[in-house]
Specification:
The protein contains 27 helices and 22 strands. By secondary structure, the protein is α/β, with parallel strands linked by helices. The chain has 4 domains: about 80 residues, 5' to 3' exonuclease, C-terminal subdomain (DNA polymerase, domain 1, Orthogonal Bundle), CATH 1.10.150.20; about 100 residues, OB fold (Dihydrolipoamide Acetyltransferase, E2P); about 200 residues, Rossmann fold (3-Layer(aba) Sandwich), CATH 3.40.50.300; about 160 residues, 3-Layer(aba) Sandwich (Rossmann fold). Helix 26 packs across helix 27. The structure holds adenosine-5'-diphosphate and magnesium ion (MG). The site of magnesium ion has 5 residues, from helix 13.
């Protein structure tokens, strides 16, 4: 019976590593520190790389940074003691190339081995040194004339290093664990019919291939992580993550949520707006409206490029809660942003007689008590604020819609914490939970969204309000800084405003603040007729906000800032953005910063000042910025250049912790993964459960669904 068989394999999988030979408490502890506790953990501990010892590379053909095996004869040996002990061994071969092996730690016996003329075979990564290419601390062995000089027959796996455990012992341990791999049927969790269609190897076969590549394995594919065995493992891992998110979603949707199906108030607001909604705004609001009319919670992510007008869509959604006699909350990551929302919402809603309350960290004492009271009594129909909204002691009367802006600044747990402020917010199973709307201006590629947000529905506001002229972007070498001063002078004389953003090689707040300070002083001197302001992370929050407000009100012409201004700030009159050391910033951040201009109707420009010489990567980033203003295109490029972990931030998802899968490389697997996931959830939920347990285990993203 398959069930019993499965049960037996579960036992074996869960067998503690200490059952293996040579694993005492000390080793077990070191492994446990890396999350390795069971045999299964060792099976899934996959090689990070392979060393190819099946061939020798002529020394003349060595390339810096490319690991290879070489063999040569010792041509010269030098011992030095200048700063610390050092041993240099020059090797030559028939290709007439020379390679230096360099050692900082060595024993006398080693020195004795390296006689001129001796044959040495070594493996390592050559780097440019003082005298041509060198390898520091290569792994090597001496080959005596009569001795064994056969080449390796397969790739050697290299495992992620584990502190206090040598690579050889680790390899041996994993080998022992692999010797105990159960037979195919006991190990396999993917049903046959799901595998057959796509010609996937069994899990057992895939694991053995990846850990112990057979002689005829496709070496290039393995090194690139694209071998069918690796793809098979990646599929199961992606599937596990997908299933765990879907499970969360299903659990969430099993809760009850208030039905918010009246839209007269939203209509009234829409008619009173000073502008017409864009097609994209209408479409997304329509999706939200349909979600809100359901008796289970909406879980929707709205992606919209900077300036696409997400706030008004949120306000319309809030009207559905208010019309139903309930409350909506809008949370933003910074006080400044929250305040901007407050002003927008008050401007739109107070004329309709709706009470909008404000709750931030700086609201204290009596004022705070009064707000808490209004929130608890339901008198406050819409509540805008920062993290302060989630604090203990904040109790809503009847929260029906929780809106979180600029979600990438919040962790998933925070998002849930706001949800838990819902009517029945005790966390018990039958609670009524609010609808959730998450908004982000960091567009992420579709594939990535599929993987990261399988628990959310995703909509995109993929159109900007009319009348915006695209921002012109140029990249300038830092030497041309003086020209910029003239541009700022001209823009300010015409009544426009400008940002000057300072970044630095050293990221410490303090150093960046100093740089911003001296740039500020310098620009004040050069532009006596312009009022210059300064904001950086080391200033008191109140001063920072006063300056930002003065900039918003047009009292300040030029704002010198660190990247603290990055997210969300809306000053339509600002039309010039200058970013110093732009080569240091990632695409997402550059795009966010540039999004601060081009919000009004005036033609805007963005100047990316860079420090030459540019790395290949930096050059590509700046080119991408010059070529497009489209956040989605930029996000795709970012994914390609940096990989998904960086893009999403590790705080946000568990995606960066994949063992095998790499979303940039394996994105094409996702449609298949989704299809499999739906089938499994439908046909064999107990298998789905076990796949999640195998790969995701206890590290489930949500504390409780
Ligand atoms: P974001 O999506 O970056 O949060 P905002 O909601 O701050 O964008 O909107 C940017 C600006 O565009 C605001 O000044 C807002 O009032 C304005 N806006 C929003 N929708 C429209 C529209 N349909 N037509 C014209 N202006 C709009
Ligand atoms: Mg916004």
């Amino acid at each position: 019976m398959p069930i019993r068989k499965g049960g037996a394999s579960v036992d074996l999988q869960q067998q503690p590593i200490s059952a293996l030979k040579g694993v005492g408490p000390r080793v077990a502890e070191k492994l446990a520190a890396r999350g390795l506790a069971t045999l299964q953990d060792l099976w899934l501990q996959l090689p990070r790389q392979y060393e190819d010892r099946t061939a020798l590379t002529p020394i003349r053909l060595l390339q810096p940074g490319v690991a290879v095996q070489v063999e040569g004869r010792v041509e010269a040996v030098e011992r030095g003691f200048r700063y610390r002990p050092m041993l240099r061994v020059a090797l030559g071969d028939d290709s007439h190339g020379t390679l230096v092996l360099r050692f900082f730690h060595f024993r006398a016996a080693q020195v004795a081995q390296f006689q001129v003329g001796a044959r040495v075979r070594c493996y390592g990564t050559p780097r440019p040194g003082q005298h041509g290419l060198e390898i520091v601390h290569p792994s090597y062995r001496m080959i005596d004339e009569a001795g064994d000089d056969a080449l390796g027959t397969s790739l050697d796996p290299v495992y992620p290093a584990i502190e206090g455990l040598g690579p050889v012992s680790l390899r041996r341990l994993i080998g022992q664990a692999l010797d105990r791999l159960p037979d195919e049927d006991a190990l396999e969790l993917l049903p046959r019919e799901l595998r057959d269609g796509s010609n996937l190897p069994s899990l057992r076969e895939a694991l053995l291939t990846v850990h112990r590549p057979p002689q005829d394995a496709d070496v290039a594919a393995l090194l690139a992580g694209r071998h069918p065995a690796q793809r098979r493992l990646a599929i199961e891992e992606l599937l596990a993550h997908h299933l765990s998110l879907r499970r969360q979603r299903i659990a969430q949707q099993a809760h009850a949520a208030p039905v918010l199906d009246r839209i007269a108030l939203a209509d009234t607001l829409r008619k009173r707006l000073p502008f017409a909604l864009t097609g994209a705004q209408q479409r997304v609001f329509e999706q939200i409206r349909q979600d809100l009319a359901q008796p289970h919670p909406m879980l929707r992510l709205v992606q919209g490029d900077v300036g696409s007008g997400k706030t008004v869509v949120a306000a319309l959604a809030a009207m559905c809660a208010v019309e139903a006699g309930r409350q909506a909350a809008l949370m933003a990551p910074t006080e400044l942003l929250a305040e901007q929302h407050l002003n927008n919402l008050r401007g739109w809603l107070e004329p309709l007689g709706i009470r909008v309350a404000w709750l931030a960290g700086k609201v204290t004492g009596k004022a705070r008590a009064k707000v808490l009271e209004e929130v608890a009594s339901g008198e406050a129909q819409v509540v805008v604020g920062t993290h302060a909204l989630m604090q203990e002691g904040v109790a809503f009367h009847d929260l029906a819609l929780a809106i979180v802006d600029e979600q990438h600044r919040f962790g998933v747990h925070q998002r849930l914490a706001l949800r838990d402020k819902g009517s029945g917010g005790s966390g018990n199973g039958d609670a009524i939970v609010p609808h959730q709307l998450v908004m982000t201006a960091t567009p992420i590629p579709r594939t990535l969204a599929m993987a990261a947000y399988a628990d959310l529905d995703v909509s995109a506001i993929d159109e900007l309000p009319p009348g915006r002229t695209p921002v012109q972007t140029v990249a300038l070498s830092a030497e041309r800084r003086p020209e910029l001063v003239e541009r700022i002078r001209k823009a300010c004389a015409e009544g426009r405003q400008a940002y000057w953003v300072c970044t630095l090689i050293d990221d410490s707040d303090e150093v960046v603040a100093q740089a911003a300070q001296s740039t500020y002083e310098d620009l004040c001197k050069r532009l006596p007729e312009v009022r210059v302001g300064l904001v950086h992370g080391r200033m008191k929050a109140a001063d920072k906000q006063a300056t930002m407000r003065a900039f918003k009100d047009g009292e300040i012409g030029l704002l010198v800032a660190t990247t603290v201004i990055e997210v969300g700030v809306d000053v339509p009159n600002a039309s010039l953005m200058i970013i110093e050391n732009a080569e240091r910033l990632g695409l997402a951040q550059l795009h966010q910063l540039r999004g601060r201009v081009g919000r009004g109707s005036a033609a805007s420009s963005c100047v990316l000042l860079y420090q030459a010489p540019l790395s290949q990567m930096a050059r590509q980033r700046l080119e991408t910025m010059r070529e497009t203003n489209d956040g989605f295109v930029i996000a795709e490029k970012d994914l390609e250049l940096r990989g998904p972990g960086e893009l999403l931030g590790t705080r946000q998802t568990g995606l960066a912790q994949f063992r095998v899968a790499d979303l940039a490389r394996d994105a094409d697997l996702l449609p298949q993964v989704h299809e499999m996931g739906e089938k499994l959830l439908h046909d064999s939920p107990e298998l789905a459960e076990r796949i999640v347990a195998r790969w995701v285990g206890g590290a489930v993203r949500f504390a409780s669904a």
